[in-house]
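My current task is to audit a protein record that another person submitted. I have pasted the whole thing underneath without changing anything:
***
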Amino acid sequence: MQPEVDANVWPRRLLIVGSILFLVGAALYLSNTDLMNDIIDPRKSAAHTLEDGGIHTLTLEEGCWVFSVLEENADVTMNISEINGSAVGKTLDQKCRADYAPQAIDGAVFVVLEKWDIDQKKEVLIEIDCEGDCAGKTVWLNENGAFISDFTQPIIVIMITICCFGSFLIPLGLVLMLVNRSKAQPVLLENQSPFTETDAVEMKSTDEIFAMIHGVMNDAENEVPPPFSGLTAPKEVPEKVQSGSGNIASSITPDNPASDDSWKKWDES
């Protein structure tokens, strides 16, 4: 049998380092919660805020603009049109895809109304309508590029990198530990006998094995099932065996005749 291979310490080290990095990243996230909230909460990060519905005129920079409201104000509808000089131009209908998703750490839920793509800096007219009264209802405008720029601050990049790297090392260390443990199992050589010295001593000869089996079979045959197990077998009485001829000479002779007439009955028959 080959000696056990020394356990590789690197998988365990990777697991420990990954756990430490993940904990450090989590601590950095908790310490920068307010900074994260200022980026993702539209109430704090919005470039423009439109209140109480109505008509609003704004100048929007180039980019993908996200219009969002609180969930309870989801009945708000809006249109955006381009302004050419003093006249209102065509209605903008070019949508876009944005990475920004409004969220908040205080549990507030937001709904995205529309995402408009502004191909260049321009002045626009925004019309906001509500099913009921628009008083107290607010629409926030966030530009997707500004969100990405805020999210790439050094502290946030470091925090995300540490968390992701730790999350990668933890399962990697576990997998390597399992692989290393399987390789450390003892392996039998091809030319090595699977029997040890103790097995060789305990091995019995063919005669001993036959005697063991024969004895077990005899014991099984002699077993008497209940309710006859308590009875004693009757003893056999040996018959007497005579030697020589089976014909015995009669004691009746002419000089010693029979005392009865039985011989006459035999002769008559």
About this structure: The chain is about 40% helix and 20% strand.
